[in-house]
Amino acid sequence: MAEQERKQTRRTDHGEEAEVVEEAVVDTSEVLTDRIDDQLDEIDSVLEENAEEFVKNYVQKGGE
Amino acid sequence: MTGSVHKVIGTETEFGITIHNQPDFNPVLGSGLVINSYAGSRARIKWSYDEETPGRDARGFGYEPSPAADFDSGLVNLVLGNGARLYVDHAHPEYSTPECYDPLEAALYDKSGELVLARGAATAQQSLPDGQRMLIHKNNSDGKGNSYGAHENYLMTRALRFGDIVSHITGFFVSRQIVTGSGKVGSENGRPDVDYQMTQRADFFEERIGLETTLKRPIINTRDEPHADAGAYRRLHVIIGDANRSEVQTFVKLASTALMLQALEDGALPAPVLLSDPVEACWRVSHDPTLAQTVDLADGTTATALELQWQYLEWAAKYAEQIGAADPYRRALVLWEEILGDLESDPMKTADRLDWTAKLQILDGYRERDSLAWADPKLRLLSLQYHDVDPARGLYDRLAATGRMRRLFTDDEIAAAVIRPPERTRAYFRGRCVDQYEGSVVAANWDSLVFETGQDSLKRVPMMEPLRGGKERVGALLDRCPTAADLVRALGDEDGRTRA
């Protein structure tokens, strides 16, 4: 079935990619963690205060 | 084989609105305030409902009267120079994009709506007392069981049987949620509890097919209101989708859907994939961010949403190849395939393109760093603030500003789309007339404009063909007509009838 052929091809693509990038895996995950930490720090600086009350008061009317 | 029509595309977005610290906040008045603030001295244009038939059913039966407006919404209606409509719908400010020529253009104008609302809110803010803040969210649910829409519109041929749309597209709509979701903490509308789900809207779909949009929402909406020559066209009014902040996501959503619909019109799709219970499949798919959930098919087998999407991609790609599809469609197919590949290997790889994974990455980061349980209100706040259209506060904007979301458009392109209409549809004529003959355009709707020319009667110019009225056809004409009276006279001379 065509669907299986496509997925088979894709898996092969991924396999080849995986071989190429394997050595860099450890570094990449550290970089990713740093990036996410930076991201959270930035979000902290703009996040609304008093989450519980803010969320409680957010009520919309249905629409459409 | 019925023969396809060019897919003219537009979106409608109802924005969430609140004024923080205003105890007696009224969303209808608040919506009016933000729109009037955006309008400033711009002329208000009456929206003419004469040609609108939201109660007409595409299945050929039923004819319900249009609901009465909540208040005189004609006073809070703007037709913008970009051809869009900005108005109060129920208790929300709504932005309807102009008719766009292709999905990339439609994604750009969808983004331009965020900027329009952000500017309106910033101006409205100046009239509020200290301590009160207006907030506008491009989302679809308040987390308390109230939902509001993000609709897509596709021009279709009238010749296609509506039943064929239902059988072919239902499975596509259910499975595309993995690509189109904006992400939500928890569940609503009586659906089973869940920590996090892909979409804002899935919980609210209760029927396979129907006319309603505000309750018992159907996966396929049958509103038959073409806003064009009804003998030639349908407008497929798609209500099962989330408002996306991601540009890539909006683009892929519109392009993939348009291609599927066009392939269907051209008879290029094999037998449809039929789901046993599309309504249940809808929320079940949304409720499983691991993408492992299978849905039952009518032939007794099962498939995951991802497997179905691979199938639809293959059909759409084959069709695009056959017809030599235009560039935006080729570009969208590449992005669609990349997204499915990444969802297959690790959904979080799509966090730079999909709102639901971008949001989940933020929530997972906070859960880990601050040891938060899923019930913590801070996670709901993060989930909400992702959608804030104020670029200083919206979490999507913070990600995009630091290169963490892939963009398709520059800020300048989005700002230009706020003031300039698309050039290849009738929106061009509408937008230019509104700008150029301000004060003389006294009423409008999607398929006509009404001019005050100083004569005894108002002049109505019909625009029943969405692809007519573009720059090539009317640009020079508008350039040489300084007044609305000149324009109406010139249009009359052109073909004996007044039409764009």
Total number of strands of chain B: 18
In the predicted model, the low-confidence regions of chain A spanning at least 5 consecutive residues are: 1-25
**Count of the separate structural domains of chain B:** 1
- Assembly context of the chains: heterodimer
CATH topology of chain B: Creatine Kinase, Chain A, domain 2
Mean pLDDT of chain A: 69
Rg calc of chain A: 22 Å
Which CATH-level-2 architecture of chain B? 2-Layer Sandwich
Please give the alpha-carbon distance between the first and last residues of chain A: 41 Å
Helical residues, percent of chain B: 25-40%
Task: Write the H/E string of chain A, N to C.
Answer: HHH
Shape assignment of chain A: elongated
Give the strand content of chain B.
Answer: 15-25%
Query: Largest interface, counted with CB-CB under 8 A?
Result: A-B, 30 and 52 residues
Structure, described:
The complex is a heterodimer of chains A (64) and B (500). Chain A is mostly helical. Chain A has three helices and no strands. Chain A has helices at residues 2-21, 25-46, 51-57. The two termini of chain A are 41 Å apart. Mean pLDDT of chain A is 69; it is low at 1-25. With 500 residues, chain B is of the alpha+beta class. Chain B has 15 helices and 18 strands. Chain B has a six-stranded antiparallel beta sheet with strand order 4-5-6-1-8-13. In chain B, strand 17 (448-451) and strand 18 form a beta hairpin. The A-B interface holds A 2-3, 6-7, 10, 13-14, 35-37, 39-40, 42-43, 46-48, 51-52, 54-64 and B 14, 16-18, 20, 27, 89-92, 94, 141-144, 146-149, 151, 213-215, 217, 239, 307, 310-311, 314, 341, 344-345, 361-362, 365-366, 369, 376-378, 380-382, 384-385, 392-393, 395, 398-399, 402, 404.
